Amino acid sequence: MQVPAQVEYERAGSVEHALTLLARYGPAARVLAGGHSLIPMMKLRLAQPEVLIDINGITDLCYINLTGTQLRIGTLTRHAQLLESSVAGEHFAILHDAERVIADPIVRNWGTVGGSLCQADPSEDLSAAFAAMKGTMIIHGPDGSREVSAREFHAGPYETVVGSSELLTEIRLPIRPGGGSGYRKVSRRAGDWPVVAAGAALLLDGDVITDAGIGLTAVGATHFAAAEAEGFLRGRTATPQTLARAGQIAAENCRPVSDQRGPADYKRHLACELTTRVLGVAVARARGLTT
Amino acid sequence: MKVTLTVNGTEYARDVEPRLLLIHLLRDELGLTGSHWGCDTSNCGACVVWLDDTPVKSCTVLAVMADGRRVLTVEGLANGASLDPVQQGFAQCHGLQCGFCTPGMMLTARWLLNNNPHPSPYQVREAISGQVCRCTGYENIVKAVLWAAEYEAAEHGAAEHGAGG
Prior knowledge:
The complex is a heterodimer of chains A (291) and B (165). Chain A has 291 residues and is an alpha+beta fold. Chain A contains eleven helices and 13 strands. A five-stranded antiparallel sheet of chain A has the order 4-5-10-6-7. A three-stranded parallel sheet of chain A has the order 1-3-2, covered by helices on one side. A three-stranded antiparallel sheet of chain A has the order 11-12-13. In chain A, a hairpin with a 6-residue loop joins strand 11 and strand 12. Chain B has two domains: 75 residues, Beta-grasp domain (Ubiquitin-like (UB roll), Roll); 80 residues, [2Fe-2S]-binding domain (DNA polymerase, domain 1). Helices cover 39% and strands 14% of the residues of chain B. Chain B contains five helices and five strands; from the N terminus they run E-E-H-E-E-E-H-H-H-H. In chain B, helix 3 crosses helix 5. Chains A and B meet through strand 1, helix 2 and helix 6 of A and strand 4 of B.
């Protein structure tokens, strides 16, 4: 029987209230959103907070809005809501691709976008997706809010730059014309963590790639991104050969480890193959083709 | 900590430890043992109940998180003596063998049909993809859900016809 250790419980009614509670309890507290990462960790005693600050009542943090040239996603948005959002899917097919393969439909009903990001699991899907889209995280703290690039959000496995008195409140994604995106994942069974997954967000001017974002998860890619492959693609014509070379570069520059999900060389092979494929998907979508 | 929640239409108030999981509140405190406690790791779905309007895995929800909310368990699925069409489908199609996964499967099936009254076999499989039948009786579970969908469509058609006539 798996039971969390004894813990105190506080319910936050607003962002300000949550910040007050976080300031009061400091590093002894953990924010509880959907709980679908944190509660299993608490059962295994891998996480043992003294206080939980439940933010499920802050329904203001549950939204997907189109604001000018950005898509803004509230931290408490459930995975199922992101998957159902037509505005999210219209501008970022990568989000729907990824959400379809994150856990299972029941877990997606309560698991949240912000919770997944803050858990910072090195195999997490949205971290790679937001890295590919070059999103921005909005973090609130006692002295106001600050913006952090998706590529500076993670400090390491299970670690983010969100301080013990801070709260991730929103993710912002830039919408740019001529863009196309996608996400591809290989997992051992339905609902499982990825063996490897790759996301891509490309900007095309005619056949020329003017900007490239590539996210990789579960392979030890720095900040969940394939920066070298992105640099290679920028300014090049989107041919199958170019995309395949970018896949090779992405694979050469990540650091997969052998574990129960597969040997490192297999993961490196997948990183190459999935990057190449998802770049093809992103190019096709940027050209307005259905994939 | 005091929690008040409505389970199958009945309000319950209990004083619980914050670390108590919803599945254990339902089974051990309220005596509603229809919801099963399976893998304890959010994988198997034996513990699925509805929290407000959507199914959740109740081994991964704290009882305190259900405070002020509605819970539906398998005990609340039938309408009095009349079984829900999903329950009838499981009976008609031999949708259960040992029965351990059945309550969770039926609650997910009810949710699926509420949102998608005419699912394809693939959509049924996708809906239950986070739930495990250790007897591997998936074929008949899918048939049972599709039976319920057809039954409800026929009922709906009969009601429309009756109203028109």
